[in-house]
């Protein structure tokens, strides 16, 4: 199974991302972007720099003078997918430059694909540009090559990822992100807000705020102050969210927060979310990577969380903002996980009643400290626990969605075809959550439109509705 949703890959996506005409003699670069949305933002930055230098961007291999493959290297399955994409690009095009997380292991890549032109690691933008210059020299025409105000985007025009920091200060035993991407480095608050402003001015209807640890934003800057709109704004996630929410309400757009650790100060975000009305703002949606619930498993993971306190926090969030939606991901089969610890997780799920849930079976990651833990769980036990966990999550999701039948929901349109419109409610992030489908009276709808629908039917993960 692909680790990266096909419609997040610019070479496979149905969205018309690159529709500009190529001038005669203009060098052209293709891009395959794998991995998480944070990597997608890195791809956008690379392509924006190249576009500014006069390169055209190709949506496929055959129309490109060279291809950049931005890889993922977190899990063995992701590494395999990256190697497969590199091989495909070599076969289809021949000139391939590799970057991204797997690029931190250049010998691993060149051992399988010795014909790649260059290998660079994550966030090494200058090295990528140097490699492109060597393979395909630039030929800019400053009178013709105009860069969009928002830069090059690989997402549909109506939503955009907004990265607020790089790296992570945690030392979770199963994760090597700090080794690949370094410690937390937060962007200045005014730089983040200026990018958000430009995206909203360009017509983006949903800002997806991402980082490795969104709630830690600004800790490395000691919450310094940045000049903004005649005043100052603190480098802190609450202050940042409040200001982005204000801009989004004015633009009638959404702000969605991802990768938020459940620190105590996260409760200060809830009143900001509660202010969000039909016109927009910071959505009452928290994407929190709980990973597990049993305190002993969390301790073995070296996770900064405690399950009992987390349940108290969830109750407090819901009391302050009853419409809040909680999404999370979990790992089953972590080394040493007993049947009792797994059952504790299932019981915790019954209490937490999370709205959206993903689950992964534990995999060893080269360089991760969890590899050396004793009592690794057999593959067949991991598979069994994954199936039981997903059955529990599906039951909860099905009940929650059934309760929405008859309700009115604000939705954003993602795609429209001959059969209907694919939309999302405020409870659904693109690519990872469910959809709401409209199969009647959808003529005239366009991606990015926002409208109110009445929910008429529900399944385990999706809704169906009609326009009001």
Automatic annotation (TrEMBL):
What cofactors does the UniProt entry give for this protein? [4Fe-4S] cluster
Task: Report the enzyme's class at the first EC level.
Answer: transferase
Extract one GO BP annotation from the record: tRNA modification
| Residues annotated as domain TRAM | 402-468
Q: Where is the MTTase N-terminal domain?
A: 27-137
Residue ranges of the region described as Disordered: 1-26
**UniProt keyword annotations, A-Z:** 4Fe-4S, Cytoplasm, Iron, Iron-sulfur, Metal-binding, Ribonucleoprotein, Ribosomal protein, S-adenosyl-L-methionine, Transferase
Q: Which residues form the Radical SAM core domain?
A: 154-399
Q: What is its main location?
A: cytoplasm
Keyword Ribonucleoprotein listed? The answer is yes
Q: Which reaction does it catalyse?
A: L-aspartate(89)-[ribosomal protein uS12]-hydrogen + (sulfur carrier)-SH + AH2 + 2 S-adenosyl-L-methionine = 3-methylsulfanyl-L-aspartate(89)-[ribosomal protein uS12]-hydrogen + (sulfur carrier)-H + 5'-deoxyadenosine + L-methionine + A + S-adenosyl-L-homocysteine + 2 H(+)
Ranges of Basic and acidic residues composition bias in the record: 12-25
* Family as reported in the entry's similarity comment: Belongs to the methylthiotransferase family. RimO subfamily.
**HAMAP family listed in its UniProt record:** MTTase_RimO (MF_01865)
Q: What protein name applies here? A: Ribosomal protein uS12 methylthiotransferase RimO
């Amino acid at each position: 199974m692909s680790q990266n949703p096909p419609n997040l890959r610019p070479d496979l996506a149905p969205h018309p991302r690159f529709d500009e005409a190529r001038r005669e003699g203009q060098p052209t670069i293709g891009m395959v972007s794998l991995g998480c949305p944070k990597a997608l933002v890195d791809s956008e930055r690379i392509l924006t720099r190249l576009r500014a230098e006069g390169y055209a961007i190709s949506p496929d291999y055959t129309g490109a003078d060279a291809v950049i493959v931005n890889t993922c290297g977190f899990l063995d399955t992701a590494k395999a997918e990256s190697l497969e994409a590199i091989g495909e690009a070599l076969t289809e095009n021949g000139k391939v430059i590799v970057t991204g997380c797997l690029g931190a292991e250049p010998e691993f890549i060149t051992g399988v694909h010795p014909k790649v032109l260059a290998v660079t690691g994550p966030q090494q933008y200058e090295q990528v540009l140097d490699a492109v210059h060597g393979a395909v020299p630039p030929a800019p025409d400053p009178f013709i090559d105009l860069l969009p105000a928002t830069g090059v985007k690989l997402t549909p025009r109506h939503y955009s990822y907004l990265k607020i920091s790089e790296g992570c200060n945690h030392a979770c035993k199963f994760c090597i992100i700090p080794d690949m991407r370094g410690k937390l480095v937060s962007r200045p608050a005014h730089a983040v807000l200026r990018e958000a402003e430009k995206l909203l001015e360009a017509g983006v209807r949903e800002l997806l705020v991402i980082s490795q640890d969104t709630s830690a934003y600004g800790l490395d800057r000691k919450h310094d102050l940045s000049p903004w709109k005649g005043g100052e704004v603190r480098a802190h996630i609450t202050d940042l969210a409040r200001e982005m929410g204000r801009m989004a309400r004015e633009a009638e757009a959404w702000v969605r927060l991802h990768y938020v650790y459940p620190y105590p100060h996260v409760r200060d975000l809830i009143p900001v979310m509660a202010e969000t009305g039909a016109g927009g703002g910071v959505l009452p949606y928290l994407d929190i990577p709980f990973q597990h619930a049993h305190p002993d498993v969390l301790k073995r993971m070296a996770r900064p969380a405690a399950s009992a306190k987390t349940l108290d926090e969830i109750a407090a969030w819901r009391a302050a903002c009853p419409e809040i939606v909680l999404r999370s991901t979990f790992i089953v089969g972590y080394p040493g996980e007993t049947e009792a610890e797994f059952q504790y997780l299932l019981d915790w799920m019954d209490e937490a009643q999370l709205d959206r849930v993903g689950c992964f079976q534990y995999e060893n990651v080269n360089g991760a400290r969890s590899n050396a833990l004793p009592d690794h769980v057999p593959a067949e036990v991991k598979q069994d626990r994954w199936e039981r966990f997903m059955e529990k999550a599906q039951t909860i999701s099905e009940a929650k969605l059934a309760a929405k039948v008859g309700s009115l929901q604000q939705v954003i349109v993602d795609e429209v075809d001959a059969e209907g419109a694919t939309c999302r409610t405020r409870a659904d992030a693109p690519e990872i959550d469910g959809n709401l489908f409209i199969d009647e009276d959808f003529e005239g709808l366009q991606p990015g439109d926002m409208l109110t629908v009445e929910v008429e039917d529900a399944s385990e993960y999706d809704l169906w509705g009609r326009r009001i």
